[in-house]
Design goal:
The protein has 280 residues and is an alpha/beta fold. It has ten helices and twelve strands. Strands 8-9-10-5-11-12 form a six-stranded mixed β-sheet, sandwiched between helices. A four-stranded antiparallel β-sheet has the order 4-3-6-7, covered by helices on one side. The longest helix has 22 residues. The structure holds adenosine-5'-triphosphate and magnesium ion. Adenosine-5'-triphosphate (ATP) binds next to strand 4 and helix 1.
Length: 280
């Protein structure tokens, strides 16, 4: 890449901010499902080390598809990256399986909050550590660290995860991803179906994990207003293409973004939750 080491590229390949080489770089990928439906068209994005990047867009824009492409999950859905490359920490990962991602320090939290209902909260978290080889004491230390960020989960550590509220389940799946000690978490719609105060709480925890533990985040969100308050950079996707990107603070006032979130602000939270219900 012919680009100074202290910049990241926006979708047009321009440098947008003074940070080191990106941890994750998606370079002009095209994704096709079942050999016919093209869903992503030359989509590019960069995630700086220790950044929080928001991937924004309406229903069906291609956010989840992008997350699955990065985490090697497309194949199980008859999807394929037909053009472009994905680099993580300077190495190509677009031909790797999902099973190889954890070892590289990438965790994915899928949309729809899938905690293992039959297991206790603590056992859910321990499942997240199963790829680790650094011993029980180190895992116990991570568990303590995670409980310090999620005191609510600590209180409920012996409860069946199936009995948790929606917000607690979202915390549980984020916490489970953290148990692998990832450098980067891909988080698909953390705010989905949650009341505004819980959304604030969860984003507040994400921001602290980023600041204090150095975890890098790529967040897919329909809720642009909230995501851009916590993110460093944002990308707005429409019909599988990035139509606008840049620093979060600048993007928050962009007309395309205002149009995208005012659309569902009018509808209110109830409409938003309703539209997403089929997914959960
Ligand atoms: N397995 C699949 N096979 C075929 N088409 C798919 C598949 N998964 C998703 N799509 C299509 O790809 C497009 C992008 O979907 P995707 O789930 O990536 O959007 P999204 O931005 O995550 O939307 P949402 O906000 O509703 O979660 C949609 O048109 C969707 O119908
Ligand atoms: Mg989605």
């Amino acid at each position: 890449m012919e680009r100074p080491a202290d910049t990241v590229a926006d979708s047009a390949g321009r440098g947008v901010s003074a940070v080191a080489e990106p941890l994750l770089a998606v370079n002009a990928i095209e994704v096709v499902y079942s050999r016919q439906a093209m869903v992503l068209h030359s989509l590019s994005l960069s995630v700086p080390r220790h950044g929080i990047v928001a991937l924004l867009g309406a229903n069906g824009a291609g956010k989840t598809t992008t997350m699955k492409a990065i985490s090697g999950l497309l194949r199980s859905e008859r999807g394929e990256i037909t053009k472009g490359t994905i680099q993580y920490d300077g190495q190509r990962i677009d031909r790797l399986d999902a099973s190889r991602m954890a070892a590289r320090g990438i965790s994915l939290v899928m949309e729809g909050r899938h905690a293992f209902g039959g297991l206790s909260v603590e056992d859910n978290l321990r499942v997240g550590a199963f790829t680790r080889r650094d011993g029980a004491a180190a895992v116990a230390e991570t568990l303590d660290m995670i409980f310090s960020y999620f005191p609510r989960l600590k209180e409920r550590r012996r409860s069946h995860a199936g009995l948790l509220s929606g917000g607690e389940q979202q915390m549980c799946v984020i916490a489970r991803a953290l148990m692998a000690r990832p450098r980067m978490i891909l988080l698909d719609e953390p705010s989905m179906g949650l009341a505004p105060q819980l959304v604030e709480d969860i984003f507040g925890i994400i921001a602290r994990l980023n600041r204090e533990e150095g975890v890098t985040f790529l967040l897919a969100e329909q809720n642009a207003a909230v995501a851009l308050r916590f993110a460093t950079h944002g990308y707005l996707v429409e019909n599988g293409r990035v139509i606008r990107d840049g620093l979060a603070a600048e993007l928050a006032s962009a007309p395309e973004i205002k149009a995208s979130y005012l659309g569902f602000a009018d509808e209110g939270m109830a409409g938003f939750t309703e539209r997403k219900r089929w997914l959960t």
